[in-house]
Amino acid sequence: LALLWHDRLLKAVRKRATRGDPQSVISAIDHFCRHNEWAMNVGDEKGSILDSVVSEVNPEKVLELGTYCGYSTVRIARLLPPGARLITLEFNVDYAAIARQVIAWAGLEDKIQLVEGASEDWIPRMKEHFGIETFDFVFLDHWKDRYLPDTKLMEDCGLLRKGTVLLADNVICPGVPDYLEYVRNSLSYKSCYFKSHLEYTKAEDGLEKSVFLG
Ligand SMILES: O=C(NCCCCc1cc2cnccc2s1)c1cc(-c2ccc(F)cc2)cc(O)c1O
Ligand SMILES: [Mg+2]
User: Fold this and answer.
1) What is the pTM of this model?
2) Which of 44, 131, 137, 171 has its CA 20 to 30 A from that of 201?
3) Could you report the per-residue pLDDT of 168-196, keeping only the tens digit for each?
4) Residue 98: enclosing H or E segment and its boundaries?
5) ipTM over cut 0.90
6) Alpha-carbon distance 101 to 129, whole Å?
């Protein structure tokens, strides 16, 4: 059934969005998720906050944990400067297949490297496999019980530098209490909360922005 839903999403994107126009892909997915079937994209309201943080950071090296159908991947990549690179990890092969087609429709495949697998397996391999020194911006939107362990893993692997910005989705719904407690109390982070709503609903949710202080 999930695959059928994803085919409907792709058809909506191909029907409504203009090939090579990321903004039209974003609008098409938002329209589909608001009027046809809810989906766990970051959505338009939290997406605008994501846009403003990405524009402020203007990152060269981006890591996204949790691609899903590529909505936030396109939102981020469309704002990156020429030469900037986004690596996005997706655990579910069906989601990854959809995301590749959404990313291609937006015309952003040159900036994006989609990797299938688990964050705990790939984070330790970022340096040797992708030639990454450190990331400038990390968007956390994967398993909520992996936000904290993966943040500690990125610290241990030396993937964060003074000033790296972590932006975490769903800190209220579904919620990531252990992660929030850590970034808000650790002396190694400066953290702030952006109140919003769960995608396409009236339920409260928000994004937590945490700057690594080194
Ligand atoms: O679970 C969520 N996202 C994670 C699924 C990604 C699994 C992955 C694991 C993994 C491991 N390694 C690498 C890549 C990856 S991708 C999620 C759920 C809700 C939600 C759902 C029902 C509800 F009633 C209220 C909110 C809202 C959201 O915005 C979400 O993001
Ligand atoms: Mg999310």
Assistant:
1) 0.98
2) 137
3) 999 999 999 999 999 999 999 999 999 99
4) helix 93-106
5) yes
6) 24
